[in-house]
Design brief:
Length: about 220
């Protein structure tokens, strides 16, 4: 299906294989995460005009001033979430193109994802449907407050940079759950929080560059 639309034939699978090798060399060691990235056709999550660049390890524009994250960062965040073991319920804040949610859907029982821009969410939902990703539920809302009705979560991933860690998200983690979130304005750090009983620890993973987490929702 995809090969015909893009005229890429088998190239797409082979190019994806090269991306996986590159991620492995960059230090992503979790094989299941690498398999999940390898299973998702990233070229279907960007505009056709950018499809030929979909397997470069770079962020790309998806409209509305937003970007699909760099594959390395997607893999790094996914692998970090998995450090406490198999993932049942996972929450993503910032659906964007839907790519990160599609990667998580390969690894988690159920993925919940929240997006504030309605137009992006509608496009992402169409991709989930055409790829048969039935374990993703999505919601049009400001994700600062998480998704309290369905929590607690084994993992929460935020794909836009918060000024400070949203407390509401930390309380929606189950015991041993992890929250991976970029925090900061100009200088951002990817932080990994881990809840153990009533204690929360935080580890800094690396410097990153995300679009900002914004308040409210738009059509
Ligand atoms: N995970 C996405 C990356 C999208 S970029 C992907 O794989 O393509 C970050 C996304 O976060 C944007 O789509 C932006 O609209 C969204 N966003 C920003 N602030 C938000 C908020 N408060 N609640 C929900 N989504 C938000």
């Amino acid at each position: 299906m995809t090969g015909v639309r893009l005229g890429m034939g088998m190239t797409s699978q082979r190019t994806r294989g090269r991306l996986i090798e590159r991620l492995r060399m960059q230090g992503v060691a979790d094989e299941l995460t690498l398999q999940a990235v390898g299973a998702v056709p990233r070229h279907l999550f960007v505009d056709e005009a950018l499809a030929s660049r979909a397997y470069e390890d770079t962020a790309l524009p998806i409209g509305h001033g937003q970007t699909i994250s760099q594959p390395y960062i997607v893999a790094r965040m996914t692998a970090a979430l998995r450090l406490s073991g198999p993932l049942g319920k996972v929450l993503e804040v910032g659906t964007g193109s839907g790519y990160q949610a599609a990667v998580l859907a390969q690894l988690a029982g159920q993925v919940y994802t929240v997006e504030r821009v309605g137009a992006l969410l509608r496009a992402a939902r169409a991709r989930f449907a055409s790829l048969g990703l039935h374990n993703i539920r999505s919601r049009h809302a400001d994700g600062h407050n998480g998704w309290p009705d369905v929590g607690p979560f084994d993992g929460i991933i935020v794909t836009a940079a918060a000024r400070e860690v949203p407390e509401d998200l930390l309380v929606q983690l189950r015991d041993e759950g992890r929250l991976v979130v970029p925090v900061g304005t100009h200088q951002q750090a990817l932080l990994m929080y881990r809840r153990r009983g009533d204690t929360v620890t935080c580890e800094r993973l690396e410097d990153v560059n995300f679009v900002p987490l914004l308040p409210g929702d738009v059509v």
